[in-house]
Design goal:
Blueprint lengths: L16 E2 L6 E8 L13 H10 L4 E4 L9 H7 L6 E12 L2 E8 L13 H14 L3 E4 L10 H4 L7 E6 L15 H9 L6 E5 L20 E6 L4 H9 L3 E4 L4 E6 L3 E6 L7 E6 L5 E5 L4 E4 L8 E6 L4 E3 L10
Parallel strand pairs: 2-3, 3-4, 7-8
Antiparallel strand pairs: 1-2, 2-9, 4-5, 5-6, 9-10, 10-17, 11-12, 12-15, 13-14, 13-16, 16-17
């Protein structure tokens, strides 16, 4: 078997690896890719949103207003700082099919993308994904359980789509499923079990900066991604996200992660007396192994279609690693 993708995840901005292209050290950058402002249905101006994220330890931010592409050049001139903070242009392309919402974020867009419509939910997803790609953007499908709009069947076979939201911080998006509808993790495993690669993001979907902690509000700081890249530039970050060099979190920090030829090894950054469980998950959402060890180790048996990990702490916070398909790397 060929060597699997090896990742070493360290806390903060510690050097973790070397970029094969230019031998620069790779670092971890914290970011949110789903944020709203007064340019659509948020409650603050873009500069106020930027101040919150920069002031709370984030390294990059995407302003993704509904069918509106915010010009980030001026904001970067004021708030951007090399190696410290960056704004990436984005838009939430907001479409629908028969009143079912089809919302897809475009990251790094060169121009505004108008909703394309479609003859079904899947067709609308495909048309909008293609439009985002043509505009130079990276698409990620948003909150599939918002109004119970999309399931695994709608996401399977979509060309050009490699990302969706495994966690969305809005209080009305039904991440856990219910009433006979699957949660986002079951949707994820449904797509992965078909053999299709799909990466999972955690996002805020922030709308309400003026009501921090208030129940029923979409406030910031609930979910984010940690991206491994050589530099804090849009090109480096988007390329890393594209190839799955990131993990998603609602608060759990990984100190070290390696996916090697024979095993996956995860080391969790300890916080006080918090306890952790690590579940290694495979085809059909089956729990292949669960451990309370730190580091947590999973040894490949040879018959896995894919393996992903979910780290859960004793306060309910979670981190998700991206799926590894061992067969594809032989």
């Amino acid at each position: 078997m060929r060597r699997l993708l090896s990742l070493i995840l360290l806390v903060g901005l510690a050097s973790i690896n070397v970029s094969p292209e230019d031998s620069r050290p790779l670092r971890w950058y914290k970011g949110n890719t789903h944020t709203h402002t007064l340019n659509s249905d948020g409650d603050v101006a873009p500069d106020e949103a930027v101040r919150w994220y920069r002031g709370h330890g984030y390294h990059f931010l995407v302003l993704s207003d509904h069918n509106f592409l915010t010009d980030t050049a001026g904001l970067n001139a004021v708030f951007g700082a090399e190696g410290k903070f960056l704004l990436i242009p984005g838009e939430e392309i907001t479409d629908e099919f028969e009143k079912l919402p089809v919302h897809i974020n475009g990251l790094g867009l060169r121009r505004l993308v108008e909703p394309r419509g479609g003859t079904s939910v899947a067709d609308a997803i495909q048309r909008n994904v293609e439009a985002i790609r043509k505009a130079g953007g990276l698409p990620h499908f948003n909150h599939p359980n918002f109004v119970w709009a999309a399931g695994a069947a709608d996401l399977k076979g979509i060309k050009g789509l490699r990302h969706f939201e495994i966690f969305n911080g809005h209080p009305q998006v039904n991440n856990l499923g219910g009433g006979g509808f699957p949660g986002t993790e079951e949707i994820w495993d449904g797509v992965l079990s078909s053999g299709q690669l799909l990466y999972g993001l955690a996002t805020d979907d922030t709308h309400n900066f003026k009501a921090p902690g208030e129940a029923g509000k979409a406030w910031p700081g609930r979910g984010w991604i940690m991206v491994r890249a050589a530099r804090l530039t849009a090109v480096d970050l988007l390329q890393a996200i594209e190839r799955g060099d990131f993990y998603s979190s609602t608060g759990v920090i990984l100190k070290d992660y390696q996916a090697g030829e024979r095993e996956i090894r995860i080391t969790i950054a300890e916080t006080g007396k918090t306890k952790h469980a690590v579940r290694f998950i495979g085809k059909g959402g089956a729990v292949l192994a669960e451990t309370f060890d730190n580091p947590a180790v999973y040894t490949f048996k040879g018959d896995e279609l894919y393996v992903r990990a979910k780290v859960i702490d004793s306060n309910g916070l979670v981190a998700w690693t991206q799926p590894v398909f061992p067969e594809s790397r032989r």
